[in-house]
TrEMBL record:
Its EC number is 3.1.26.5. It catalyses: Endonucleolytic cleavage of RNA, removing 5'-extranucleotides from tRNA precursor. It comes from Candidatus Kinetoplastidibacterium stringomonadis TCC290E. This is Ribonuclease P protein component. The gene is rnpA. Gene3D superfamilies: 3.30.230.10. GO terms for biological process: tRNA 5'-leader removal. RNaseP catalyzes the removal of the 5'-leader sequence from pre-tRNA to produce the mature 5'-terminus. It can also cleave other RNA substrates such as 4.5S RNA. The protein component plays an auxiliary but essential role in vivo by binding to the 5'-leader sequence and broadening the substrate specificity of the ribozyme. Belongs to the RnpA family. PANTHER family: RIBONUCLEASE P PROTEIN COMPONENT.
Length: 132
């Protein structure tokens, strides 16, 4: 019997794609804000209209706060992975994670640790929130 090796991936259904989807979420309220990131969620009425079955994630990172593309891409990978692992325990909604502070640390290892801890705390806080 052959066991297929399924890769854990971040499916396209779990992403926000169009500017109108981002705009709808950005009109919502901030659920969590930390040193580097803020997490916003769409109003629940938008979700009821769409009747979606999965949470979706959008990422907003500007060069103003993370100058190097390597840093931006590293942080995006960490956030996507954390969301992929936690989205089944989070309320079904559209979320946008936005970088709002300048990343000054030079070491990628330090950035990786800091980003992972902060984003996991945000998603844990959101998963404990029953209504927003």
């Amino acid at each position: 019997m052959r066991v297929e090796n399924k890769r854990a991936r971040f499916p396209t259904e779990a992403r926000l794609h169009s500017p109108s989807e981002f705009k709808a979420v950005l009109k919502g309220k901030i659920l969590s804000r930390g040193i580097f990131f803020s997490v916003k969620a769409a109003d629940s009425m938008c979700i009821i209209k769409k009747a979606q079955s999965n949470s979706r994630l959008g990422l907003i990172f500007s060069k103003k706060f993370a100058h190097r593309a390597v840093v931006r891409n590293l942080i995006k990978r960490i956030i996507r992975e954390s969301f992929r692992k936690n989205r089944h325990i989070m309320p079904i909604n559209d979320y946008v994670v936005r970088l709002h502070s300048k990343i000054t640390t030079k070491s990628l290892i330090e950035i990786k640790k800091i980003a992972a801890v902060e984003i996991n705390n945000h998603f844990y806080k959101i998963s404990k929130c029953k209504t927003y």
